Predict the 3D structure of the following.
Amino acid sequence: MNLAERDAHLQLLDRLYVRCTNDRGSVVLVGGPVGAGKTALLSAFAERAVAHGALFLSVTASASERHHHLGLAEQLVNTLRTAGMPTDPFADDAADGTAAAERPAAAGPVPVPLLQRLSRAVCAFAERRPLVVGVDDVHFADAASLEVLGYLVRRIDSSAVLMVMNECTGHDRTLVALHAEILHLAHCHTARLARLTADGVAEQLRERLGATPSDQEAELWTRVSGGNPLLLHALVDDRTTSGTAPGEPQPGEAYRYAVVRCLHRCAPGARGAARALAVLGDSAAPALVGELVGRDGILVGASIAGLHAAGLLAANRFRHEQARLAVLADVPAAELRALHGRAAELLHEEGAPAVAVGSQLMAAHDSVRTPWRVEILRQAAEEAMLAGDVVAAVGYLRHATGVCPDRTREAQVTAELADAQWHIDPAKATRHLDQLVRLVRYGMLTGAEALVPVKHLIWWGEFTRADALLKQIEAHEERNPSAASTAPGCTGVRLVRSALALCVPDPSDRHGASCGPPDGAATGVGPLAARTFLDLSTGGTGEGEEAQGVDQVLRSTRAGSPLAAVLLALTLLIQTDRLDDAVSWSDRLLEQRWIERVPMRRAMLETVRSAAALRRGEAVKAGASARTVLRLVAPASWGVAVGLPLALAVRSGTETGAYDTVVPLLNTPVPPGMFETPFALPYLQALGRYHLAVGRPHTALTHFRSCGELMTKWRIDVPHLVDWRNDAATAMVAMGRVQEARSLMEEQYLRRGAGRPADRVRESAGGAATVPAAVPQHRGDPPGLPFAPHPDSGDAPSELTEAERRVAALAAGGCTNREIAGRLFITMSTVEQHLTKIYRKLRVRGRNDLPSALRVHGLPPCLPNGG
């Protein structure tokens, strides 16, 4: 009630009191929703009346005494007797000789003599001084007491009696007889209290907190409280524990208690309707609420309307989650579980989304083993994963494992549970790994779920077990085509095979299965292998000439998109020197809300962002992302992939000179299986560069050579992956072994096809040697490395970027623009832009002049067949 409204009601009561002092009695029915301020209005008027010489008597009805016959009437008589009323209407020596024994002890009409004695006693008592009688919560009065009040109201019109009766909205059925008897009387008046408006809320906040809220703050407080003064003051009580400024409401214990008070003072059916609404949540609808509580739809609609009027609801939803939780907490545990179980059945019959039904099953702690419950929970988990809520998905699947009606379904659900848990913390998913492996071997786990343990084994570096298990799956699918893991073409198995080949690039490891990867995927970890993997992960066959565009993959990324496709697309952007695009896409994806709820996905995207930033020379930004990665997912959960985030953190710490942050990283254990994968390469290079930076060239050289040995063994010894020779030569120069450094760099030149370079080692004045580098360092390499392009090689090559060099080489080798775009995984427009810049920098007219220009500058063309 706003202050202006309160003043208007007080003025009405004041006028009626003046009439009362002139022996003209009145009655006022004050109505409004629960908590609207009816009691506060009565108290304010009582103070004013007493100040003007009135005798104020107050009685309050209670829901717990509703069945106490004449309970409120006795309370009124006792109050009058305490105030000094000389006669007792219930006494044996009544003036008319009627005995108190005539008063009925059970429900029934009140004897007329008793009504007459009470009426005469009250009117006689009012002859001494004006009498104001306040009856609060009259809607809770028993039927006999309501009859007494009605009789009394009809006979006070010529007495100094003013009666004020407060009633709550929604109790019309209870008070219908009283209203019929008195509302038509000339001396009967009504006053209706409304909920507070935003201005009224602002007034209350200013009065309680001593600060004027802004319009936005007032609107927010109004929205949460619903304009209900009881709830508003409870919110203020919660707020005062943290400060005095209005700010934002923070519902707490006082608010929850006030919500429960409102429910217990509402109409009889309102509490049941509120409980049903709280249980159903976003699925609530009046018809469904009626079915859940077993009441007529019209009655339920009236109850819901009462809850709206009280400010508890907005659009059939509780205005704040704390209100809903307060209602649920007020329900006995057994009754609450039963409500959730019944709600699950009703929602399932209604065809509600699986998430809605699954949430009810979980809340009910349902242990009934029926197929529809398991399938609903699996669908709910899938929907949650698509929405990015992996924690909810794990909850659904964990509950589903306890209600599976057979071992086959239990095996499938367990695999899905392990896969979902991996997205939170791969280490937690390992508890299911051995069980899943056994289930695959025993033939109890087939289809797409059978690939889950294979992928986990690859993650933890158990490649032999993964290969054996994968072969068993392939054999089973050959015998049972209907049990294939995915669509025709066994793309699911091919995808896992491709992932295994990327992790174990040993050329001696050749898989003869029909679903194995192309040869290129097994022998390389560069753009060609990544492109093959990306094609498979986005639904291709792995055999087409055109792969799905990187930008197309990233533009279509959603919460449920394949993580492998997204990561490979971003990796290809980095490998093709589209660093700005890689950073931009990583930033854009990390801003999505669904990423926040999937730690593993966020960590991997942060890893890509860190790698792109480091390659752009932004070591500080790269370090921040690398630290975020290791904070989101501990190193122990990264499996064989741990080498990448550790390498990024070590590299960024080294390049920024924050060596103290690198030491703990050096002591972080890594799984031995990591050194069987390409993840070891950036890790070894990062360790070598750290030791080189802190003055340990011998240790650094050991790491660089280990890196080179692995690359040679795997036949992927190409500088664009890890330029270990340049790093090793740097360490050799630091050790004074200049001739060895020169020999190593000559080998680098020969591997690049540029021919044997001239002897350009120059002795500086201080005796230090400088050797020309065969490959320009990527942006982000440590400054001060002694290898740089020699001035004699001409200015043009130094002006071409690495991406432009690749485009120029392919164009000179006879590739069309479309072929260049496909091989480098860039758009046709990007190819054209690169060629325009290349022609200008090399001062040539067109594509025909490129081969000779490149030979002049020692850059061989790249033949269309990859030569």
About this structure: Strands lie at 26-32, 55-60, 131-136, 161-168, 188-192, 313-314, 317-318, 762-763, 769-770. The chain has a mean pLDDT of 82. The radius of gyration is 41 Å.
